Amino acid sequence: MNTRMIAMIVGVVLVLGGAYVLVEGGAFTSRETVLDIGSLSVSAEERHPIPSWLAGIAVAVGAVLLIGGVTRAR
């Protein structure tokens, strides 16, 4: 597989993933141990939203990679 094809595939993934986060709103979850006494362990999960500006950057970079791959293929 050549680098143009890889750039185009990465571009499509970034555009689709960024667009999904912009439309639906994405988040990730982290787990932290709050209390650890002997065999007793208490943990908490916290949900962190993905910033929309980061999704916008992903769409823009993906578009550049996609367009660059298509125009160089000619």
Question: Could you explain how this protein is built, in words?
Answer:
- The protein has 74 residues and is of the alpha+beta class.
- The chain is 59% helix and 28% strand.
- It contains two helices and two strands; from the N terminus they run αββα.
- The chain has a two-stranded antiparallel sheet with strand order 1-2.
- Strand 1 (27-37) and strand 2 (40-49) form a beta hairpin.
- How big is the Rg? 19 Å
> End-to-end span in angstroms?
17 Å
**What is the number of beta strands?**
2
Q: Ranges with pLDDT <50 over ≥5 residues?
A: none
Strand content: 25-35%
Instruction: Provide the structure class.
Output: alpha+beta
Mean pLDDT: 89
Helix content: 55-70%
Largest sheet: 2 strands, antiparallel
Strand order of the largest sheet: 1-2
Secondary-structure element order, N to C: HEEH
Shape: elongated
Supply the number of helical segments.
Answer: 2
Task: Name its key features.
alpha+beta, two-stranded antiparallel ribbon, 74 residues
Describe this structure in a few short sentences:
This protein is of the alpha+beta class. 59% of the residues lie in helices and 28% in strands.
Task: Set out the fold topology.
Elements: H1 3-24, E1 27-37, E2 40-49, H2 52-73
Antiparallel strand pairs: 1-2
Helix pairs in contact: 1-2
